Amino acid sequence: MQAQSIETVSIRPPLQVFKQAARENVKGTLRSRAQFRRVYDNGEKRVGKYVVVFARPSDATPGCSVGVVASRKVGDAVRRNRAKRLLRSAYRPLMPELQTPCELIFVARRGIVDPQVRAGLVEAELRALLAPLGYLSQDPGRVLGGQG
Fold it and tell me: What is the torsional sign of CA 112, 118, 119, 122?
């Protein structure tokens, strides 16, 4: 009897595919201490009840880069993670309305972890803080590139 050769086929994509996907997911995210420092030092600051916004125009990236911060003053790890989730979900609907390339940092304040605070409330505050800085379009239906 002849031995049959079995060909193994890998169903997992190569590691490069995962690395590329990871890089694409973090585009638009402030990562390094130097990036945060640049925004803190050279940006404008606006303070709200639930969030502090630091913003500066960006010359490096075509879109907006965002960093989300929740210090231990906000609470334990569960509360800090909830605060960061709220900030991210409040920022997402504003992304199409951002007009200029910018770097933004959202710093959570203690009040954001109150159980009555929802993403809609935080979104309204972000909109109120970003509009006077000139980063949001005046017309909510307008998106980047003049579409809509």
Answer: negative
Q: Return the axis-axis angle of helices 119-130 and 77-91, rounded to nearest 10°.
A: 60
pLDDT in tens, 75-91: 999 999 999 999 999 99
Evaluate whether residue 54 is within a structural domain: yes
Q: How far apart are CA 20 and CA 11, in angstroms?
A: 18
d(C-alpha 98, C-alpha 44), whole Å: 16
How many independent structural domains does the chain possess? Answer: 1
pTM: 0.75
> Whole domain around residue 119: which residue ranges?
48-137
Query: CATH number of the domain that 90 lies in?
Result: 3.30.230.10
| pLDDT, average across residues 41-67 | 91
